[in-house]
Amino acid sequence: MAKDETLSEKTAAEENAPGTKATDEVIEGVVEDVATDDLMPLLEDARTKADEHWNQLLRVKADMENTRRRAKQDVENAHKFALEKFALELLPIKDSLEMGLTAADSAAESGDAIAQLKEGTALTLKMLTAALEKFGIEAVDPTGDTFDPDKHQAMSMQESAEHTPNTVMAVMQKGYQLNERLLRPAMVVVSKAVSETSDSESGNHINEQA
After folding, report:
1. pTM for this predicted structure
2. What is the DSSP letter of 163?
3. What fold does the segment set 138-200 form as a domain?
4. Where do the domains of the chain lie?
5. For residues 163 and 186, is the Cβ–Cβ distance under 8 A?
6. pLDDT truncated to tens, each residue of the chain (210 aa)?
């Protein structure tokens, strides 16, 4: 009997010894309980942070969409109303022209229409010039300057003894530039050297008169 009890105790001890199946199951159960208890707060914290990050992402996405929509609207408005300030500057000039015509009609009866029309036109031109300059539009009058094909358009060339060759003798139509960028080239007459044939014909003409 004692031998059987000793054998049973030995068997139980062997079953509960480290590395045995029973011991491993107990250890795994304890580890699982401990791991579960430790991981649950971590999982909850990770889930909370993930929700916060997702909500932040949604807010950022919504803000970006609103910014894109506003920028698109601003660009459309800029295209539509880019000339608004310029148009406001031109309206008084149009008013002046209309008043000038009305005044000219009234002055026609008194015979003083030409003088008033000239005075009104000069005033209107002054207003228009000021409005253009306000927006960086300036006239280009290159009379006396050296001909520049990038800024001038030669309409004709004339021989001239008074001007250096390739000089702008006269301006048929002024050019204009916007903030120093050419809008329209000036139409000009350019000088060229007097040919020998012209000199000889001029000399013969003088001798004949003498």
Report:
1. 0.54
2. S
3. Nucleotide Exchange Factor Grpe; Chain A, domain 2 (2.30.22)
4. 84-135, 138-200
5. no
6. 544 545 455 554 555 455 555 555 555 555 555 556 667 777 888 888 888 889 999 999 999 999 998 988 888 877 777 788 888 888 888 888 888 777 777 766 666 667 777 888 888 899 999 999 998 999 989 999 999 999 999 999 999 999 999 999 999 999 999 998 999 999 999 999 998 765 555 544 434 443
